[in-house]
Write a structure and sequence with these properties.
It is built from 7 helices and 5 strands, in the order ααααααβββββα. The protein is α+β, with helices and mostly antiparallel strands. It has a 5-stranded antiparallel β-sheet with strand order 1-2-3-4-5. β3 and β4 form a beta hairpin. The longest helix has about 35 residues.
């Protein structure tokens, strides 16, 4: 269950619902959306998208990557997410190394959780009332996934980005008390301490190749 929820959450986190909004110009938004309204909309759209797209449910990596690359990333500050996961070493990385880290990390997330999308069926996502002040630049939106069994708590961290898309971008998520970025940060730190930035890139690349081989 946890892996399925992480799969769904990671897809929303990556902005999966934005696929239905591809081609909508920024000017179409009369005003920046409230962060909880954004998460509610994206959650509903991503569930609809998964249920209606057999290739997504089947874990088709090419289809998922197409959605992520071409329609999704505007909803996420993926650079911030990757930098936070890498930690202090990010500042010492070259622009090319930072680019590779973002690419490999994104592929890792997609390949790790792609198979879980096939298990999404009758879940519903309920967004809780937002606890924030009007001037807050960063907020946490709390929600829960309801299906069989006990509700699963799911939280998103967002930063305010006025004039960009809906006005907010996601940069971290928490499932069952585990923040995704912090989880990877501890893993990445061990690799960086042992092999450096290039070693981390190589390890991510190796894991991605292994994940791809398992699905063939």
């Amino acid at each position: 269950m946890k892996r399925r929820v992480f799969g769904l959450a990671a897809f929303v986190f990556a902005g999966g619902g934005a696929g239905l909004l591809a081609g909508v110009p920024v000017s179409a938004w009369a005003a920046d959306e409230a962060p909880d309204a954004m998460i509610k909309r994206l959650s509903a759209e991503v569930l609809s998208l998964i249920r209606s797209d057999s290739a997504l449910r089947a874990g088709d990596i090419n289809r998922i990557m197409t959605v992520v690359d071409n329609r999704i990333m505007p909803n996420v500050n993926f650079r911030r997410m990757t930098a936070s996961a890498v930690g202090p070493a990010w500042r010492q990385a070259t622009p090319e190394q930072q680019k590779r880290l973002q690419e490999e990390f994104k592929t890792l997330l997609v390949r790790t959780y792609a198979g879980a999308l096939a298990q999404v069926n009758n879940e519903q996502i309920v967004v809780r009332p937002l606890r924030a002040s009007p001037g807050d630049e960063e907020v946490v939106v709390r929600s829960e996934i309801r299906g069989r069994g006990e509700p699963i708590q799911l939280e998103y961290r967002l930063e305010k980005t006025p004039g960009e898309g809906a006005g907010w971008k996601i940069y971290n998520l928490n499932v069952l008390g585990v923040w995704l970025v912090e989880t990877y940060r501890s893993q990445f730190a061990q690799e960086i301490n042992t092999r450096g930035i290039d070693g981390l890139i190589a390890t991510l690349s190796e894991r991605n190749r292994a994940n791809a081989a398992q699905r063939t």
